[in-house]
Structures are given as C-alpha cells and as structure tokens.
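anyone seen this seq b4? input:
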Amino acid sequence: MKKKLLLVGSFALLITLLFIAPRNYSSILPVFQLTEKPTVISKGTYGKTVTIDLTFGKEEIETLLKDLEAPYPHFFISTEWMERSAPIIKIMQDKHIPIGLLGQDGATYIENPDLFQKEVEQFDKAMGEKPLWFRTKDYQFPVEVQEIAWDQEVNLLSSSKYWNGEVPVLSKGDVLSVPLHQEERVDIKQLTKLLKSQSFLPIEQNIFGLKMNTKTFPE
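predicted toks r here
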C-alpha cells in the first residue's frame, strides 16, 4: 500500500512540475504537436519573429545565409525549391537554421487530399526529419488541412504581419512573413538590414516563452 501511495505521489508531483514550471526556464520540447488540438498559430507573446517564405532564388540566398547570425529567421521552403537546392540546404543545416515546409494554396489540399502526405515525405527525405512547422502559400488553412496536419504531428503557422511594400513596423508578439518568390520578392539588402536592426526570437520562444532544444539519445 505504501508503495502504491509513493507511486501516485511521484506521478502527481511530476504532473505539477510540468504544468507550473515558469515559462522563462529553458525546456526540452518534444518534436511533435505543440498545441492540444488542430490550431493555426499566427502570433506570439514574448518577442518578434521573422519567417521567410522561399520558393525561388540561389546566389542571393547563399549571400543572405552567409551573413546570417543566430538567432536566425525561420525559413519555410517549398518542396520544388528543396529538390533543386541541395547545396544551399546543406549550408542551412550546418548553421542549424530552422526550416519549415511551405505548401501550396490551402484549397489545393481539398482537391488533392494526398498532397500533404506527399510533401511531408519529400521534406523528410531532403531534411532527414519531418517538418515541425507548416504553412500554406496563401495563408489559408481549411479545416481539412488542419486535421491532416494534426494527424501527421505537424504544427501550423500563419503570421500577423506580411512584408508587401515598405519595411514593416513590428510589435511584441508579431510573426512577420517575408516573401522570396519569383513573382513577389523583398529586397535582400533590406531584409538583411532588418535582421541586423533588432533582436528576434525563434517561433517557439515567441509563442511559448520556451527555448527549443533537441537532444539525441543513444540507441
């Protein structure tokens, strides 16, 4: 009986520590859903985050990556760009730059229900792991997309600000989207200047106030 009580007490203590731990403590978060149900996140709380939607470019992207310093912006890249940009991806991985999956327009996944799974598999093949974050190119997330992503243990990120002209003014909690497409493109020099002008936070730290770490355990 005492043994059973001890086990119950230990379990209760563990649950308590997990839920009341201060948000400013560094924590190791599992690499799967960071929300309790299918949810599209568009804004944080603790700082400012820059995300870059990348579907086109080579030489200027290499220049941008060369000058980047941590904390890095979070790149969302399309599967088509991945397939033709393996050397650049290697640079990003060597610098531990966070990479998410940039999909197609939201309605496309209703017309083609198998597309999301295919893109996740392509990402996994190119990166060596599934994406933790996904966003559609038009920032539309139909219920079907939310449910499919949830089943695949992939989180959905939109944004609160979009760079479509002048340099945007960011407030605490903002998640900025920067387009680097063939048909719509922010000037790389302006982007570099913005990244160096102030301090930015990773997505997870901005949203949850937690530092995102990964840990490899021996088999």
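Residues 1-31, 213-219 have pLDDT under 50 and may be disordered. Residues 2-20 form the longest helix (19 residues). kinda curious what u guys think
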